[in-house]
Specification:
heterodimer; A: two-stranded parallel sheet; globular; B: Cytochrome-c3 Hydrogenase, chain B; three-stranded antiparallel beta sheet; 8 strands; about 45% helix; about 15% strand
């Protein structure tokens, strides 16, 4: 009974307006949602009986300087067998999002990793510390403009 | 009554039973754990950052280092993502060789797990048997790829080099000799009352909690959820192969051990079918080593011995990935220790940690 991508999209659009939840042109599994709606759409994905997204695959970011930071989260429904990605286009200067760690427990470390490597702040996160890098590290290594003596660009 | 005081115990990062460098800060009340805070990152080599500075082909040997026990699956999931973006389909023989390598690697990884898991709970003999047999699988890999641990074998458009009849015959010889030994592995543990008492009912993981935490692989199947990418979303030629997903309801350490032992049998079954069905023809499409991948994003995942491994790949055109993220099963499994360890005794920590088959290089990337 797995739903196809258009069916999931239409189900979400029954609740959230279609001009706000748009398809992602670069990624055929993804819907782009605005920052303010991210948490509410995620809650809906989990609680809706038809969608029933009970499993979070991962959350991550992609840096697109000079302005954009794409945040992506992938969800799966074990019961139904379908999956979907949510994408949020963040402002690169002050990226912030609400945390999902109370809805899916593995969001905790995923968000800590994104905070560590990209500098996205997650509101209401129970324990937002660096995960991979040492506590006293400065900078966010997976950003494209991160400079460090050990990071050497490959010559063209 | 005597007043007791809670104290902090630092387990790791150099601890023989953590399979790498995992540090756990335990708050103890006597011999019982009160809270557990796993700390990772000691093996962080910034593989994702390195991938952004290499051509698509050059990233493959880096993915080997994700998980030294199953290099083939890490190669595979990355290559699958590149192929999805570049719209490349490998020839049928290539697909079969990939399945053969993945399943052989699953056997090697589960044998390594079996051996070290037994060591953790104090049984030395099974370790020696398991490693003697794992050695034979590594010999096969050496024959095919020239390497014993980090293979760099699965490439964009196929595999590194075709395997010959000698390899296939060697594989069948190994299976014929090894498969009858699985009951011996089990007999070493199943009928042992000490093992039984150490594992039965220890580290219970409910199906709801397993989903909530995002557990995958044999660990979630031991909690009664039949989730396996090979069946749910078949990649390569898994659709044409007949095999079963062993599922256990108990959710304890013993069930996780049983799930892996049954998987060994299923892998042998798959390998035998591949031997019958493998077609002739080319194994690889010749492609430019400096392949250019069109713009786009994709997420591909496959079933590794440890669970659901995935690769999220972003390309902005050109010959290097723009972003390459690996979703690794151990990263998720370590988080669950915070929930499972409170209340258990110190010796059970080892049994529980080992039963999840965590690998730290994969967690820290």
């Amino acid at each position: 009974m797995a739903l196809k991508f258009p069916e999931i999209r239409d189900r979400i659009r029954q609740v959230f307006p279609s001009q706000i939840v748009v398809e992602d042109l670069e990624n055929s599994d993804c819907l782009v949602v605005p920052e303010g709606l991210y948490r509410r759409v995620a809650e809906f994905l989990k609680s809706d009986e038809e969608l029933c997204f009970d499993y979070l695959e991962f959350q991550t970011c992609t840096d697109h300087p000079p302005e954009l930071l794409d945040f992506v989260a992938y969800f799966r429904s074990i019961e139904k067998g379908h999956r979907i990605g949510l994408k949020v286009k963040l402002n690169r200067q002050h990226p912030a999002l609400p945390s999902l760690s109370d809805l899916w427990a593995n969001a905790d470390w995923n968000e800590r990793e994104v905070f560590d490597l990209f500098g996205v702040v997650f509101h209401d996160h129970p324990d937002l510390r660096r995960l991979m890098m040492p506590e006293d590290w400065s900078g966010h290594p997976l950003r494209k403009d991160y400079l460090h003596p050990n990071v050497v660009k490959r010559p063209d | 009554m005597l007043a007791t005081e809670e104290f902090e115990l630092n387990m790791g990062p150099q601890h023989p039973s953590t399979h790498g460098v995992l540090r756990m800060v335990l708050k103890m009340d006597g011999e019982r754990v009160v809270t557990c805070d796993p700390i990772v990152g000691y093996l962080h080599r910034s593989i994702e950052k390195m991938a952004e500075n290499r051509t698509f082909t050059q990233v493959i040997p880096v993915t080997d280092r994700l998980d030294y026990c199953t290099s083939m699956t890490s190669n595979y999931v990355y290559v699958l993502a590149v192929e999805e973006l570049a719209d490349v389909t490998p020839p049928a023989r290539g697909e079969y060789i990939r399945v053969i390598m993945t399943e052989l690697n699953r056997i090697a990884s589960h044998l390594l797990w079996y051996g070290t898991f037994c060591l953790e709970i104090g049984a030395t003999t099974p370790f020696l048997y398991a490693f003697a047999d794992r050695e034979k699988v590594l010999d096969l890999f050496e024959m095919a790829s020239g390497a014993r641990l980090l293979y760099n074998f699965i490439r964009i458009g196929g595999v590194g080099r075709d395997i010959g009849q000698k390899f296939l015959d060697g594989m069948m010889e190994f299976l014929d000799g090894w498969e009858p030994r699985i009951p011996m592995y089990e007999a070493l543990l199943d009928e042992n009352p000490i093992f039984y008492n150490r594992t039965k009912g220890v580290g219970y993981l409910s199906p709801e909690k397993a989903k909530f935490y995002g557990v995958s692989g044999p660990n979630i199947r031991a909690s009664g959820i039949p989730m396996d990418i090979r069946k749910d979303k078949p990649f390569a030629v898994y659709e044409d192969l007949k095999f079963e997903i062993p599922v256990f309801e108990e959710g304890d350490v013993f069930a996780r051990y049983r799930a892996r032992m049954e998987e060994l049998r299923q892998s042998a079954l798959i390998l035998r079918q591949c031997f019958e069905k493998i077609p002739g023809g080319p194994a690889t499409i010749p492609l430019n080593y400096r392949i250019k991948v069109p713009e786009g994003e994709t997420y591909q995942h496959i079933e590794s011995p440890r669970g659901d491994i995935g690769c999220y790949l972003v390309s902005r055109g050109g010959d290097m990935p723009w972003r390459c993220k690996f979703r690794t099963p151990s990263f998720v499994h370590i988080q669950i220790f915070r929930d499972l360890l409170p209340g258990v005794l110190i010796p059970d920590i080892m049994a529980i940690c080992a039963s999840f088959d965590i690998v730290l290089p994969e967690t820290d990337r």
